Amino acid sequence: MSTAIKDLSQDRQKRMIAGHYAELSHAKESGRKVVYTFVPGNLTELLNNLGLLPVLPEINALQSGMRGKTGDYIHIAEKAGHSEDVCTYVKADIGMLKSGNLGPTGEPLPKPDLLLLSYTGCFTFLKWFELLKREYDCPVVMLHVPYQGDGRITEQMRRYVADQLRDEVIPALEKLAGRKLDYAKLRQQLALSAQAESDLVWVLESAKHKPSPIDAYFGGVYYIGPIFTSFRGTQDAVDYYQLLREEVEQRIREGLGPVTPEGTMHEEKYRIVVEGPPNWTSFREFWRMFYGEGAVVVASSYTKVGGLYDRGFRHNPDQPLETLADYCMGCYTNLNLPDRINLLEKYINEYAADGFLINSVKSCNSFSAGQLLILRELEKRTGRSGGFIESDLVDPRYFSAANIKNRLESYFQMVEAKRARS
Amino acid sequence: MSQLIEESPAATGALAELITRATKLYEDLEFKTVRDWKSAEPSRRAIGFLPVYAPREVIHAAGALPVGIMGGGDQIEIVRGDSYFQSYICHLPRSVIELAVSGRLDAMEGFIFPSICDVIRNLSGMFKLLLKDRWVHYLDLPQNFDRAMGGKFYRHELATIANGVTALTGIEVTDERLRASIALYNENRRALADLQALRAQRPWLVPATEYYLLQRASYLLPPEQHTAMLRDYMRLSSQSARAPQDNIRVMVRGAFCEQPPLGLLRTLERAGCYLVDDDFVLGARFIPEPLPEQGDPWEALIDGFLYRSLPTASKYDLHADKEAEIVRRAREVRADGVLLIAPSFCDPALLDQPMLARALEAAGIPYTSFKYAEDTGQFQVIREQAGTFADAIKLWGNA
User: Fold this and answer.
1) Residues A244 and A146 in one domain
2) Interface test with A, best of B316, B340, B370 (most A CBs within 10 A)
3) What is the model's pTM?
4) pLDDT tens-digit map of B10-57
5) Do A149 and B124 lie within an 8 Å CB cutoff?
6) Contact between A124 and B150 using a beta-carbon 8 Å cutoff
7) Which positions of chain A have pLDDT values less than 50?
8) Can you give the residue range of the structural domain that contains A174?
9) Whether A211 and A225 share a structural domain
10) ipTM of this predicted complex?
11) CA-CA to B356 of 20 to 30 Å: which in A155, A319, B49, B238?
């Protein structure tokens, strides 16, 4: 491992995100209205178009998790009557709220002026905002995004989402913003979205190289940061992804492996596909368990929760509402189980993976229910080794480092043995 | 099975026979009732549906028998089902998978998975993979309760179900057939409403276990047979010598999907609670009022779902006030207290609980809460908790 040197893209991303939080912390003084919404199926272009500031509660929860705050937050929520069985993102958010609602920068986050409930691929989002509605007493606007139960988006589904956007969501946002949506600007924003999406896909697909210049899971969560949060459809996002792409191109030219917290990974021993979200409370430790063994994640499903672009979808400026509808319905957890398996199978084959690993998180039934069948199906179809570990998103009680490390080491030995046999 | 009858001395003769029949239906996890119904006519088909609600009228109008799949309760051993789910997933999908992979669901040609939570949603995909020869449909019930928006989308969903079932039966769902099915289910709704009213007025005539068994029977029997069963029960029970006991009146919320075992209901009654209202087998009376039998029958179903269906955790109607509704209902059925129960790991029910608890607290309605699983076998702790709750209300008027 070489010494960690921060890439320019990483610095740029940090500045972008810090700038966003700075804007949020001054939202009331500057008169900016604040909309809470979720990452999957987010409508960032609409919010930016109207000068509204998004807050994404899952991002707050995961950032709190990385800063070691969620153990206390969850405890506070459970003391207030929330069950130990339910999603810890929700409880971390409720606990954070009851502890002063301090954001990642340490400054209080503004209260929402509106809750935009687009519950793509996750029913818990629905309950989450029901709970927040009681806490903040602000209006809620609902966007029901149909699930791809039959593995496709029908014209009726597209029409339903586009109609809700036109007749309910946009009027509610316009009312809050005190101005009309600028459709000409929206088209420009969507063109910028598509541009950034193409570069993101290029970066993610760079992992097909050997050695892979990126880690598409642990590193990937940083790469998706800007486009999954408040920057899709902005020039900032386009610039960031161009810069990131250039850096990755350079790494390929130099034959370098991925950047890790301890520098460049030199020897790529295992190429792995990962299904499921990471654990955030011990993120670095979890990552180290991979790169310490020479394992690089070449593709992951988690980096598709806020938008699935590597099957060809790009935002289309010519059909603004329909394209937003397609985007929402196309997010990873909105795919049915057979399609999730098909996608993972494709990743395993196209990225020449040695195996695949499922990180099953207790909090997220949307991901987790059915993962054991995914494991069997993928092993059957690909003949590659599958591994299964369990943790949680932000509840530190459910991250057993020794247990996970043991399992991972055994798993990598299994991959090694299988490779030797073949 | 005969335990119920032995424990109710008043339930004799015809009433005992009727309860025995309902119990047999409850225990029929081989779905023999469905197989028998089908064997009477080779072209008959059956469609299973998961909790909470599926528009049974459409399935019926397409010539198929709608069959509610409520899991295996505490009656089946989970041999393979556990290997499909992690320990932190609720119990119902394990037993449903067990029913599926053991061939018990072979009596059904198709399955409908209503959109209530992520687990049931993903279970639909598992069925697509495991039962490739069957029709599997995920029913995306609208969360937009505007007729022009959610209603329009729901109409397509209803048409998809009609087409899916028609492809199996060969019987097209005409408006006329659908109106006839609505009329049959309306009769059933009236009978269920009468039973609920009887139970709320004189709960000693309708023990919780019997009420529950009658609800479950609606998930296996053709509607006209179930309506007749309900009418018979009410007549026989009203003629019985069952006497009131010194029980409190409780309302139950949170059991709309995975069902509590029968033993748990019996435990609650033994602990001194009359169950005067609940959300067990909610799909049987999800739209409690009769629907219009004239005009566009599809609109009648849409209107029923959007504007007349009962509140439950899997629905988020922005214009509804669930807190006001639970308080209103508790007062309407004169509940002395509310039991907020929930299956372990049930996100919708458990995330709902703090909101409902706060509403009850603000209204001064006593409540207590506990978790269960469909195969819970130990009831002592629950009995003590429910008994203490009942005693506190009897002694001091609150818990």
Assistant:
1) no
2) B316
3) 0.96
4) 457 999 999 999 999 999 999 999 999 999 999 999 999 999 999 999
5) yes
6) no
7) 1-4
8) 8-182
9) yes
10) 0.96
11) B49
